[in-house]
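As agreed, record passed on underneath.
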Amino acid sequence: MTDAPADPFVAPVVALDLGPLAVPVRRSLNGDHAGETGTMLPPLVDHHVHLMLVGADALADTAIAGILDLGAPLDLVAARRHRDGLPRADFAGTFLTAPGGYPIGRPWAAPGCAREVEADHRAGRSALPSAAETAVSEQQAFGASVIKVALNADVGPVFDPTTLAAIVRAAHERGLPVVAHVEGDGMTRLAVEAGIDALAHTPFTEHVDDALLERAVAIGQRWISTLFVTGYGTVTPDSERAAGNLRRFLDAGGRVLYGTDLGNGDQPLGVNADELALMAGAGLDAPALLAAITDPWPRPARAEGIATFVPGPVPDTLDEVPAWLATACLVPMEDLEAL
């Protein structure tokens, strides 16, 4: 008896290409993991969390190895910055905002999580530090490695271009990138024209035109995804705008970072498969998803000695990647052997 010939009209099954970051491995033999096979990835990073809302240790036993906290009181930053263990944390310190601006008065905003910065009306340099320089230096002194500015014209005043430029200049002079929360008409343009390094959210309240997208890409601006919180699983005008903006940002060559805005609404601790699924729906393929969730930014390099292990076979389709990544765990690099 011979095998039936292969049907020439049926395409062979081709494994999903995960890109260069994924390495087939075997986990070291022990009582719990008897030679388990799977995939090794670099450490995973959530680029938008709020420990003041979820707790300082909320992500300690998850697959997330790095976090960027984008808004917390300075006492929390100072207490957390020197602690050992995972996840490694980077902080923006307090929201820098115009007097009376977002998130002042929001019910979720912990006392001390926002700092009002007066307008900069000086015509030139002065021997005394400006309000912008003082605010930036204060964040850095308490352990901030990025600066967060709030540009939410929908709920309050925002910085004028001169003051925003002064904050960006003060941050860059100190080697600190600047992240902006943009919400409301014209806020993405304000951030791009100021040379903001990253947006805390994909713009979701306004359509970003192609020319502005190209300018954002040209200055190397990164966008942190946070698509899930624009609809929490339902399609909304905000979610549709965000997905459309992100797709065109990608098409223009933009760089996207995985971020959840953890603490904003009901979300899982660890990998958010819904966030990844929305990113895939907006145009990220499997290698791009892995790049977005393993980018060490704002750090220059990934953590050494640890890796992500995803057990089992590689998914067959892109639709399966989010749930597959949600099964990941963090392991010592020495526990993994390349196949």
The two ends are 35 Å apart (CA to CA). The chain has a mean pLDDT of 93. The longest helix spans residues 237-251.
